[in-house]
Design goal:
By secondary structure, the chain is an alpha/beta fold. It contains 10 helices and 10 strands. Helix 4 links the parallel strand 2 and strand 3. The protein is globular. The C terminus is likely disordered.
Length: 328
């Protein structure tokens, strides 16, 4: 039997993350919503180019092909479009053969309030306002940053990489580091190495990815020729002795990563260029660099102290990331 939606790993994706909407967004900016609506209706049968999140979403949906009885994952389209202007998006989804049947069209409003209704463990969008609004009310969300698209059709793996602090875990330790420096950070983590962190914004997604790993391990036991799809990495600036609290936290959640890197402040792009994730989540824009070529899809999670100005810490106001705000 298929998993009920409350047990599935559900990802909400905005059309601005799934497809390249630069041209239609420019129409919106130059001529306003009425001309944008007319333009999209004229272009209904013109297939949209793939966007930054497309390779990740395509592979994510392929998990259901390996487990058709359970169908453990789902993608829901969340859009600021109206159903009429969204027809082009839905027809493009059908053209690429993406198994996306559920959709939310908000006719100009932000769709993020409906994330809990669909049990979404992640909301991906290129709209900065929507992502920050979701994070502000403790919904899991990430801002897809511009990058070149690389989608090797022969590569069946789904490689997902996470930063730890401010992404999988809360920003408790990051706050100590920002306030008191590296020495006090290490002292704090050593003192609390046996105490798990509170979950961060994407902890739920990580846990459900680990659930998929268990399905794959069972499939591998049943069929030695089964090839795993999901591969998870944690790529963190931490180093010893702060590494122990990461292990403690994941152990308390009953999950683990396939590969874990404690880089001690080393440039993350050196590892990313080898792991080649189809998506990488980090709470700090300075870490979101993929090295030469720029083909690794980067997602900014605007959570916690790393995303606040020093002058705003007392009020909790979030600092702007500087990313563009698409219409859809």
């Amino acid at each position: 039997m298929p998993f009920p939606i409350e047990d599935k790993l559900v990802i909400g994706v905005a059309s601005s993350a799934l497809f390249d909407l630069a041209e239609s967004h420019q129409v919106y900016l130059d001529h306003g919503p009425d001309e944008y609506r007319a333009y999209q209706e004229r272009q209904r049968d013109v297939v949209l180019d793939r966007g930054v999140a497309f390779p990740f979403i395509r592979r994510f949906l392929s998990i259901n092909q390996c487990f058709p009885q359970q169908a453990p994952v789902e993608v829901v389209l969340f859009s600021r479009n109206s159903p009429e202007t969204g027809l082009r998006v839905m027809r493009s989804i059908a053209h690429y053969g993406l198994d996306i049947s559920r959709a939310v069209f908000m006719t100009g409003k932000s769709p993020y309030p409906y994330l809990p209704a669909f049990n979404a463990a992640l909301f991906l969008s290129a709209n900065e306002e929507d992502v920050k609004s979701a994070i502000d009310v403790d919904y899991p969300a990430g801002l897809v940053l511009p990058s070149r698209i690389a989608d090797d059709q022969d590569d069946i793996e789904l490689r997902v990489a996470f930063d730890f602090d401010g992404v999988l875990a809360d920003d408790e330790s990051e706050t100590v580091f920002k306030r008191d420096g590296l020495g006090e950070f290490h002292a704090h983590e050593t003192l609390h190495m046996a105490r798990p962190h509170q979950p961060g914004p994407l902890a739920g997604m990580f846990r459900k990815l680990a659930m998929l790993q268990q399905l794959e391990k069972q499939a591998e036991r049943d069929d030695p020729d089964y090839r795993r799809i999901v591969r998870i990495a944690i790529i963190t600036a931490r180093s010893a002795p702060a590494h122990e609290r990461v292990v403690t936290t994941l152990g308390s959640w009953g999950v683990s990563a396939d590969e874990t890197f404690f880089l001690g402040g080393m440039d993350k792009s050196r590892v990313l260029s080898v792991f080649k994730p189809h998506i990488f989540f980090d709470d700090q824009l300075t870490h979101l660099k993929s090295g030469p070529g720029g083909t690794i899809p980067m997602v900014h999670v605007p959570f916690g102290i790393a995303n606040r100005r020093a002058t705003d810490l007392a009020t909790g106001a979030a600092a702007p990331s500087g990313a563009p705000v698409p219409a859809a």
